[in-house]
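Thread: Peptidase S8/S53 domain-containing protein, structure

OP (GT): Posting the sequence first so everyone is looking at the same thing. Length is 321 residues per the record. Can we get the structure tokens written out before standup tomorrow? I want them in the notebook alongside the other entries.
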Amino acid sequence: MDNLLSSIYDYVDPFDAVEVARGTFKPVRIAILDSGFDPQHPFLKTLDQRLDPRIKEAQSFVQQTASHDIQDEIGHGTHALGLLLNIATCAEIYIARIAHRETLDRNTYDDIAKAINHAVNEWKVDIISMSFGIREYNEPMKTAISNALHSQTLLFAAASNDGANLGRAFPAKYPSVFCIHSTDGNGNPSAFNPTADDKDVNFSLLGEQVSSHWPIGRNGHNEPVKAMSGTSVATPIAAGLAAAILSFVRQQEQHMPPGGELPLGPWLKDVHSMDEVLKSMVRQRRGAGYDYITPHSLFDRKSTREQVYDRIKDIRRHLYD
């Protein structure tokens, strides 16, 4: 994964808690809706054994659990959190525990809707990562997602892992939600992806054999790192990439004098704007049907920060030409 995303690190400054506390910089906020996380994981601790300061808040929305019961009983949430922290180095992370077992049921749907509403209304997040999918319509979830989109929150969801047997799952198939598919390390589509939709964009990112944090001892795995595969793995990578793009723009605009061109930061919060920026990084494999995102095509290491910023400005300008 580092090879895929390493070019971004040269353009996005790391998280600065002092600058955030002073109010001189507004970090991107991401909510991750998953199985919670392991707060005792060694990779989530600082040198003085405090929790990583980028993890701002965690809350359980699982029925019949206390709100502070955020312990990951599956492992997936900890894995996804590790990916986000690795990619979105300048973002604040908010964790919503919405599951305590791998299979979601109808009792979980209301919990998910409450978590989305809380992330938007209370945490004021910019991005929500949802590494799950269901196969039936749920009105509370639909309403929560619609309200989140109306609030200009960018939503990323896993396409599904059922291959050609089934299509995209909900909420990934909901209009204006970024539906994320998986590839191997060479950009080849994963066999478990749903069939590409020829009437829509089919964003894909690395989702096979991706190593990240894992609760030690969970499910018989006694190491702090585990490799996982799935569109649910590619989803936090995509959400983290969007956060990195938004962080880069905010950092650039932090040092610009007022009164110039309209800033890109607010523009990027619109789903169609972020969609265009992600499309600018796509490389299509002939006959594959999926839109493989290559971050180095925007953050190419040969360009200055100003040149990368100007490329994003050009995307906005061409969108309205």
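GT: Both are above now. Quick notes for whoever picks this up: The chain has one domain: 2-320. The chain has nine helices and eleven strands.
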